[in-house]
TrEMBL record:
Family as reported in the entry's similarity comment: Belongs to the short-chain dehydrogenases/reductases (SDR) family.
Keywords: Oxidoreductase
Taxonomic placement: Bacteria, Pseudomonadati, Bacteroidota, Cytophagia, Cytophagales
Superkingdom classification of source: Bacteria
Pfam families: adh_short_C2
Region (Disordered): 1-35
UniProt name for this protein: SDR family oxidoreductase
Start-end of Basic residues biased regions: 1-11
């Protein structure tokens, strides 16, 4: 039986006549199936921003089911956060940290409280975001613009900066972008711009951290049914939300969470700087 081990760089030149023979290759390619099992995050600690509801809640619940202890940072949605905590604690420990991630001091506090409780951070999910629909660029005030960037991208920098000293080789960072980063949005211009910044942040950080053994990837969801949608759009638009994608429906948070699990665990060991696109079939070429 072929023994699995840590993959090594190929440094010795070698050639074979076509079509080639695997048994003669040095090293022999590792073709043994990985052991996909429950408990993929056993012993891990995950910090999730915006984990009180929507995609963040689904990710927290799935991570907990797979063995991770979970810290959740959220703004002020206390009832939602308590329900998420209740669901997570069916499986493992959960820490709730309320406050405004637009403030760098709070971002540092979130990390400090997580480490105080759990001693480390193995998985960081940057997920919190907001948006406001405006039909014209001229309608986006400076106040809204600053608020959107302060909420959607600045905390990704600040939380990650604070978390990195507590992350070891083998840790994983997963950032939430959006399909709007790839195809734009005529009514969410500032939001789509922050999501594009998250794509660039993810790719740049992945290159920066690769030698430290920390992988950085992202998820770019399409239309997902979350409180952000219910609180952002007019009733007529909400009634048709998601109907314009090939699957003709909005996705559910539970359908998105497995993408985060894949990127957080060793199943994606050969991936960094990449994005997954659970978006109902829209082709974005990104």
């Amino acid at each position: 039986m072929q023994k699995q081990g840590k993959p090594k760089p190929l440094r010795k030149p070698q050639a074979q006549p076509r079509p080639g023979h695997q048994a003669s290759m040095k090293p022999v390619p590792d073709s043994m199936p990985r052991k996909f099992r429950q408990g993929k995050l056993a012993g891990k600690v995950a910090l999730i921003t915006g984990g009180d509801s929507g995609i963040g809640r689904a990710v927290a619940m799935l991570f907990a089911q797979e063995g991770a202890r979970v810290a959740i940072a959220y703004l002020n949605e206390h009832a939602d956060a308590r329900e998420t905590k209740r669901q997570v604690e069916v499986h493992t420990e959960c820490l709730l940290i309320a406050g405004d991630l637009r403030k760098e001091t709070h971002c540092k506090k979130v990390v400090a409280e997580t480490v105080k409780r759990f001693d480390k951070i193995d998985i960081l999910v940057n997920n919190a975001a907001l948006h406001y629909e405006k039909q014209k660029l001229e309608e986006i005030s400076s106040k809204q613009l600053i608020n959107t960037f302060s909420s959607n991208i600045f905390p990704y920098f600040w939380v990650t900066q604070a978390a990195l000293p507590h992350m070891r080789k083998g840790s994983s960072i997963v950032n939430t972008s959006s399909v709007t980063a790839y195809r734009g949005s005529d009514a969410l211009i500032d939001y789509a711009s922050t999501k594009g910044a998250i794509v660039s942040f993810t790719r740049s950080l992945s290159s920066n951290l690769v030698k430290r053994g920390i992988r950085v990837n992202g998820v770019a969801p399409g239309p997902i049914w979350t409180p952000l949608i219910a609180s952002s759009f007019k009733p007529k638009k909400i009634a048709k939300f998601g109907s314009d994608v090939p699957m003709e429906r909005a996705g559910q948070p539970a359908e998105i969470a497995p993408s985060y699990l894949f990127l957080a665990c060793e199943d994606s060991a050969y991936m960094t700087g990449q994005f997954l696109h659970p978006n109902g079939g829209e082709i974005v070429n990104g």
